[in-house]
Design brief:
This protein is about 40% helix and about 15% strand. By secondary structure, it is α/β, with parallel strands linked by helices. The protein is globular, with a radius of gyration of 18 Å.
């Protein structure tokens, strides 16, 4: 298999110790074992929780991913034990979230505020910075749907969307598809946003909890 080649610029700074890595059902997810190994080599102290969607299993196995990550690879599904709030655990544990690749369907679910699986619900609720690396079919980048979802996601202060790269479509065989940004470039964007959020948090007055705000409005 021909794997992506990381950028010549070297390994970007990454000031987090816990990363939630999510892979969705694009053929590009077959590169995720390579990127998982790159993460381990580039950031030896980084703890990674890897999650893949059911559709991603068409292109990559959890066994192959686990061999590269050195840890368990979890399915993006609700556990049978209803007492275990997987989405809450992920949202609170992660210091950053990377969705690589993100299919148009996953991008849409995230942008619309849907919460039908643990990974997308964790991404909706976490205060950590979230990087989305779309992988789009021919015509996907210029579609009205993607443009609307891109606008919605980039309006969120903790979300960055890494521009996809032109690539060969597995369906048409032509260079009319869009493959996810290289992971080092995604990490660089994510780190920039993380620093911005930290600087804003340090400069701003603490905000009252949402529940308190709602209570104040109801009594006003």
């Amino acid at each position: 298999m021909n794997h992506p080649t990381p950028a010549v610029g070297g390994v970007p700074d990454f000031g987090v110790s816990r990363l939630l890595l999510v892979g969705t059902g694009s053929v590009s997810v077959s590169d995720l074992p390579f990127w998982a190994e790159w993460l381990r080599a580039s950031y030896p102290r980084l703890e990674i929780t890897t999650v893949i969607t059911r559709s991603a299993e068409r292109f990559v196995s959890r066994v192959s991913l686990a061999a590269r990550t050195g840890g368990d690879v979890l399915m993006d599904a609700w556990p049978e034990d209803s007492a275990h709030a997987r989405h809450v655990a992920w949202a609170e544990w992660a210091e950053a979230v990377v969705i690589h690749p993100a299919t148009l369907h996953f991008v849409a679910r995230l942008a619309l505020g849907l919460a039908d699986t643990p990974a997308v619900l964790a991404a909706q609720c976490t205060a950590a910075p979230v990087a989305v690396a779309p992988a789009l079919p021919p015509g996907g980048l210029d579609s009205a749907a993607y443009q609307a979802h891109w606008t919605a996601l980039t309006a969120r202060r903790n979300v960055v969307v890494a521009p996809p790269r032109s690539g060969v479509s597995a369906t048409t065989g032509r260079s009319d598809a869009w493959v996810p940004a290289l992971l080092p470039d995604v990490i660089e964007l994510l780190e920039q946003r993380r620093v911005e959020l930290a600087e804003r948090a340090g400069a701003a007055e603490p905000l009252p909890p949402t529940a308190a705000l709602l209570a104040e409005r109801s009594t006003a």
